[in-house]
Automatic annotation (TrEMBL):
It is found in: Membrane. Keywords: Membrane, Transferase, Transmembrane, Transmembrane helix. The lineage of its organism: Bacteria, Pseudomonadati, Pseudomonadota, Gammaproteobacteria, Alteromonadales. GO terms for cellular component: membrane. It comes from Lacimicrobium alkaliphilum. Belongs to the bacterial sugar transferase family. One of its GO terms (molecular function) is phosphotransferase activity, for other substituted phosphate groups. It is a multi-pass membrane protein. Residues 283-465 form the Bacterial sugar transferase domain. This is Sugar transferase.
Amino acid sequence: MNSANKRQSKRSNILVLLEGTLIAYLAYVAHPLVMQLTEQTARMDDKLLINMALLTFLVLISALSVGLYELKLRETFRGIIRRIFVSVALAYFVMELLTSTVFQNLEMHPYYLPTASALVIIVLVLFRYFSNRLGLLGLGKVRLVVLGAGQRASIIEKRMRREVDRIGFDLVGFIPIPGDDRESGIQSEKLIHVKVDEGFRDFLIENEIEEVVIACDQRRGTLPIEILFDCRIRGIEVVDILDFMERETGQIVVNLIYPSWVIYSNGFSSQNYLRDLVDYGINAVLAFLVLLVTWPFMLMTAILIYLEDGRKTGASVFYKQERVGLNGQLFNIIKFRSMRPDAESGGAQWATKGDSRVTKMGGFIRKYRIDELPQLLNVFRGEMSFIGPRPERPEFVEQLIQQIPYYNQRHNVKPGLAGWAQLNYPYGASVEDSMEKLKFDLYYVKHQSMLLDILILIRTVEVILFGKGR
C-alpha cells in the first residue's frame, strides 16, 4: 500500500501546485479587470502581490481543511462544488477581516476581493470538472475489487460497460463467494479466485486495493467480517454495492434495495414548515420571472394550436389531466394540448416515442418543452415545484405501486416541471421504463438540495435550447 499512497500523494501535491498557480493568476487578473471596469489605472505594486499571495494561501488552506486534497476523496461532483464554495467563502471572510482591521494598509478596491473570489470559484469548478471528466492525474481514481460475482454484482457489468462509466475507478476484478447465483452473475468480467480468509488481507496489500465493494448474493455466513473490519481499520474503504452504484451512476438500484439500507442510509431529509415556505417562495419567484420572459411564446403557441385543429374541432388549446402529487394528493396538471382531441377515446395509454396521436404542432412544442409552460400555474398554486419527479397519472400509479417496490416513495416530495430522471432517462412508456426512472427519482428524493436543483435547471435549459426533448 506504500507505493499506492506515494502515487496518490504525488498527484495531490501536483493538484495543490496547479490550483495554487491558478488562484494566484486569477488574483492578479482581478486587479486590472476591476480597474478597467471602474476606469482607473492599473498598477503592479507590493500591495497587489501581498494580496495575491494571501488569497492563494487562504484558499489553499481552506481547501485542505474541507478535504479537497484528501488522498482518497470519493465525492460526487456536486460535493466538490460545495467544498470549493465553502473554501473560497472561508478565505474571503478571513481576508476581509484581516484587511479591514489588522492590515488596513493592504486594503484594495472594494470590488477587488469579490471579483477575485468569483473568478476563483468559476475556474476551480471548471478545472475540477475537466480534470475529473478527462481523468487527468488519475484524481479520485481508486483500485477496487468486488466481493461477489453473482446476480447483485452483475449490475456493474450490465450498467457500467463503457470506459466512461468507470472513469472514477480501476476495477481489478470480481471475487466469487459461496452462495452467489453464478448463472445470473458475471459473464465476461475478470474473475479472481482467491480465498477470503487471512490471506485475503495480503492479496489486497499486494494488489494495492483501496476499496472493496460488497456485492455477494448471500451475506449470512459468507462475509469475512473480521477480515473486512481489519481492512477498514487499515484505511481500505468497504462499501455496499448500493452505495457504490449510487455514487458512480447517480441512481438508486431499486431492485437491490433492502429495508435496513434505507433505514441507516444518509439522506431522505424530512420536510418542515420553514423549508416548505422558503421552497414555495423561491419557486413562485422563479415562475413569475419565467412567465415574464415566455408569455409571448405561450400566446403564439395557443394561437397556432387553435389554428391547427382547435377551430375545426372546438377542442381547447389547453389539456388538463389528473396527476398524483405530494403525499399522494391528486391535482389537475395544465399543459398545452399536443395530441389530437380523441387521443384517449379508448382510455388511458402510455405515451410512446413517435406517438401517432401527437399533432405536428405538438411534436414541435414537446421537443422544446413549450407544452410544459402552462404548468407555471401549478407552481403558483403550490401543487408543483420547478424541480422534482414528474407527476404520474393515478391509473398508472396504482399499477406501478403493485409492480415496482418503493415506487410510492417518489411522492415524498412535490412533483416538478423538470427532474433528475428526465435528464438521465427520457422515455417512460412502460412499467420497465418506470422502474428505470424510479432509480433516478429516488436518488433525487434522497439527495434533494438547492445545488442539485440548480444543476438540473442548467441541464434542462440545455435540453430546451438545443431541442433535445422528445
